[in-house]
Amino acid sequence: MLRSLYVQTLQGDNFMVGHFLRAIPINAPSLHTLEVDALGSLSRDSEAALLSAAKCVSKLSLMAITPRETFIRDLAADNKLRSLIMEFTLANTSPKMEHWKPGTFETVEEFECEALSSRRTLSLLAAVHIPLLRRLRITIGTVPSAEVIEANRQQPPSEPASVRHIMEKIPTFTQLRRLSIILPNLDDVRLTLSPDVFLPLSQCRQLESLELVDRSDLEDFDSVFVSWDDEHVTTLVKSWPGLRKLHLECSNTSAPPTQLTPTVLSILAQLCPDLRSVRLPINMSSAGSAAYTIPPVSNKVYRLTLEANTVIANDAVVADLIHALWPHVAVTAWKSAEGTPNEISQFTNFYRHRHPI
Fold first, then answer.
1. Gene3D superfamilies this protein is in (predicted)?
2. Which domain does 69 fall in, by range?
3. pTM greater than 0.90
4. Total domain count for the chain?
5. Three-class DSSP category at 212
6. Among residues 31, 181, 217, 318, which is most buried (max CB within 10 A)?
């Protein structure tokens, strides 16, 4: 019994694509997952066949397709989807995405989207209304240089408009539990994002997991970095009492030293009693300069990963603080693409010897 099907067209659309898709409802009535990688435009017949096939599955993944302006609305009109993945990553993908007709997906609980640039990703995100959405994974894409330059001209400098609008859109998914954001690429202009741009996420009151994913180690470019500080992290996590995962990645070795201090660990322990996994950079230089609040011991946090722009200092003080907050945590280090030893991994070795689990 066929449950999952992957369809790829190596040379764009042809009559066989539509013929094959049209056969799915008849020949694969138990199909659960359909993945289509079309590498270009679909004919009207093939697109109609795709829409017909999509009615029969609960998980649909569309990659490298150039759909028409009414595609999302037509897809939303009749389906039983619970998971929808849309990765339109060809350079010529959907030049009229800004004119897409919005569609409401009544049953979708999981949505992933990517459309090459931050503006197109925003258009894709704006074209869907998903009232039951619980899991969202969004790739912001490249922020155009012109948009960054325009933001930098503002007094005071602001954040790129498309990134701001994406963050403002996310809280409209009121049932959201898990959020993963692939941080934007650079387009010839170095880009640092202020944590202010993420403050709209505080409206996601039921959030249990936040991951900001940095692809610096995986791609041939430096990813954007976010200038986090204790105040902004505190503002956000106060709004998420049920938070279980907080990953603020920074694998960009060119990023400046983080402004997050060991105090943020104490804050997380106080405000997020259900926390399981933490990933962020810490500047340890100020460790010991102030007293830390140690709430009742939590045995739930099992992993703390220190990111690339962590500043190592006062090893013993920081290690003892971590152990006092989360006695069963495993402290691990960000690993560079080359896997070379660094100060951060040396600290994690120190921690393991000082506080073996």
1. Ribonuclease Inhibitor
2. 4-262
3. yes
4. 1
5. strand
6. 318
